[in-house]
Amino acid sequence: MRVTLLSGFAALAAISAFALVGAAFARQSVRPDQPMSINAMRSIVNHYRTLTWTYERAARRPKTPTSFSDRRSIGRAYLQWSIDAWTRRADLARREAVARIQRRLSVHLPRSPPLHARLLARVRYTRRLALNLRRIYPGQVTRRFASATMPSGRATLRLWQRRSALAAVAVSEHDFEPVMPVWLNDSFLCIHHYEGAWNSNTGNGYYGGLQMDLGFQASYGADFLRRWGTADAWPVWAQLQAAARAYQSGRGFSPWPNTARACGLI
Question: Which pTM was predicted?
Answer without folding.
Answer: 0.65
